[in-house]
Design a protein that fits this description.
It is found in: Cell membrane. The chain has helices at about 40-45, 70-75, 95, 110-125, 140-155, 170-185, 200-205, 225-235, 240-245, 295-305, 325-330, 350-355, 370-385, 400-415, 430-445, 460-465, 490-495; strands at about 1-10, 15-25, 30-35, 55-60, 65, 80, 160-165, 190-195, 205-210, 215-220, 260-270, 275-280, 285-290, 310-315, 320, 335, 365, 370, 420-425, 450-455, 470-475, 475-480. By secondary structure, the protein is of the alpha/beta class. It has 3 domains: about 1-245, P-loop containing nucleotide triphosphate hydrolases (Rossmann fold, 3-Layer(aba) Sandwich), CATH 3.40.50.300; about 250-335 and about 420-500, 3-Layer(aba) Sandwich (Rossmann fold); about 340-415, no CATH class. Helix 8 packs across helix 9. Bound molecules: adenosine-5'-triphosphate and magnesium ion.
């Protein structure tokens, strides 16, 4: 249906695609995998008219193709969900769903009531009920992604491309997404699927293409390739090394002190949180469990002063801090890695070095002078440990691959040396090699005496990473699991209960 032959694409300092051959067939779900920066998004952008290839040929439905814009490709029947949500945040949900193909009345004006009705129906089919008149940005990241999905599924397409569609979805939404993908496959549509979550790939994909440093290193049926071999191919390492290192990188539990470093009590934010309490001791990793909309991100934001609270108290190392003030929280030693990195953090026009050092500058300065050497050391350490792929520390962050941008932001907050670190989905979008590295870094920080709050929709990560898990539901604490109680079964059971604890 859609194929690329010997396609190359070079950016200043990096060959993002090197003679890539790729074929997506009708009625087949094709996994495209590789480390952060391997070239997945670039290939998709070449296939869908965002970039023109430097050399090489594209074929669509049997004839040579050259799309000059994404709209071109869309009109030809290629529907894409990009890694970065490329919808318009200020426009309504409905408008975003029908962007460029709004239903129109006799005078050529947009038929709003029909658009709202159709939008509601398309989303209801996906199990999402929202007010489609509200601006898109008022929705959480997961719900925004469902809107992008509804949009892709409602277009009459022959090829559907999904670049990390599940990265902000909950298990229930992932089920819905897979239902949609199966329907697409039955309708003879070619689906291209990019994800770092291996379980999902094995569940939904038929074929796989593995990219490494812009080259295709493997292509074939996914069922013929076991997980270890897949990872070894991706990382370019021997299977034996991968087996020894394992796939998650958390070590057992931590020795914790008894006096808590963080006490958050009875946090209440109207419509979001009701009497939520969390304590974290130095050296402890406390997980926050719960479904989408259960109040996990809101809890982290309320603690970090990023969300005004109606009532409740936060104390750090015994000292009460003013709630609702980010500067007060930062001064007290709280740092938050937010969920929506694009809106709340990354500065695309600044370099990798500047983005990492940004928040730590006060700590790295003396008498108003910045210690450039210490910054270099710090930046080098994080680039190495998190395997940030950049042509140099001076490259603009906006030019990095999605996963590498995430790593830069994570490095910024880790570099702050806070007393309490709040991590909202720290490994989302990060490849398995670097994910293991992030996890061991979290462990290491806890061992150094930091208190960590971990929010992750990756259940395995939450369970293996946390010493204790506080479970939220509808903005209330419903359970707390400690030590050996922290198991997937207990977590699921706690989420399913209806009575607040
Ligand atoms: N606009 C750009 N300018 C300069 N370099 C770029 C640009 N876009 C991508 N690159 C580089 O091309 C390489 C491939 O990036 P790409 O985004 O395709 O990776 P990816 O496989 O999608 O990674 P991820 O899993 O992190 O999303 C990276 O080294 C990246 O820094
Ligand atoms: Mg990408």
């Amino acid at each position: 249906m859609l194929s690329a032959k010997a396609v190359s694409k070079t950016f200043p300092g990096v060959r993002a695609l090197d003679e890539v051959d790729f074929t997506a067939r009708a009625g087949e779900v094709h996994a495209l995998i590789g480390e952060n920066g391997a070239g997945k998004s670039t290939l998709i952008k070449v296939l869908t008219g965002v970039y023109a290839p430097d050399t090489g040929e594209l074929t669509y439905n049997g004839t040579p193709a050259r799309f000059t814009t994404p709209l071109d490709a869309q009109h030809a029947g290629i529907s894409t969900i990009y890694q970065e949500v490329n919808l318009v945040p200020l426009m309504s949900v409905a408008r975003n769903l029908f962007l460029g193909r709004e239903p129109r009345g006799r005078l050529g004006l947009i038929d709003f009531s029909r658009m709202h009705r159709d939008a509601e129906e398309a989303l209801r089919d996906l199990g999402v009920t929202v007010d489609v008149r509200r601006p898109l940005r008022e929705l959480g990241v997961g719900a925004q992604q469902m809107v992008a999905l509804a949009r892709a599924a409602s277009v009459d397409a022959r090829v559907v491309v999904m670049d990390e569609p599940t990265s902000s979805l909950e298990p229930r939404e992932v089920r819905t997404l897979f239902g949609v993908i199966r329907t697409l496959r039955e309708r003879g549509i070619a689906v291209i699927y990019v994800s770092h979550r291996l379980d999902e790939l094995y569940e939904i994909c038929d074929t796989v293409t593995v990219l490494r440093d812009g080259k295709v290193v493997h292509n074939g049926a996914l069922a013929d390739l076991d997980r270890l071999r897949l990872v070894a191919l991706m990382l370019g390492r021997e299977i034996e090394t991968v087996r020894k290192e394992g796939l998650t990188n958390f070590t057992g539990t931590h020795d914790t002190e008894t006096e808590p470093v963080l006490v958050a009590e009875n946090l209440t934010v109207s419509h979001h949180l009701h009497d939520v309490s969390v304590t974290i001791r130095p050296g402890e990793v406390v997980g926050l469990g719960g479904l989408l909309g259960s109040g996990r991100s809101e809890t982290a934001k309320a603690i970090a002063g990023a969300l005004p609270t109606d009532s409740g108290r936060v104390t750090i190392a015994g000292e009460r801090i003013r709630t609702g003030s980010t500067p007060a929280a930062i001064r007290a030693g709280i740092s938050l890695l937010p969920e929506d990195r694009k809106a709340e953090g990354i500065v695309p026009g600044l370099s990798v070095r500047e983005n990492i050092a940004l928040a730590a500058l006060p700590r790295l300065s003396r008498f108003g002078l910045v210690d450039e050497r210490r910054i270099d050391e710090l930046v080098d350490t994080f680039i190495r440990r998190l395997r940030i792929k950049a042509s140099s520390p001076h490259q603009k962050v906006g030019e990095l691959s999605g996963g590498n941008q995430q790593k830069v932001l994570l490095a910024r907050w880790l570099a702050m040396h806070p007393k309490v670190l709040l991590l909202d989905e720290p490994t989302r979008g990060i490849d398995i090699g670097a994910k293991a590295e992030v996890q061991s870094l979290i462990d290491e920080l806890a061992e150094q005496g930091l208190g960590v709050l971990l929010i992750s929709s990756d259940t395995e990560e939450l369970i293996e990473g946390s010493d204790r898990v506080v479970v939220l539901k509808d903005g209330e604490t419903v359970a707390e699991l400690t030590g050996p109680e922290v198991t997937e079964q207990n977590l699921l059971r706690a989420i399913a209960t209806t009575e607040p604890a």
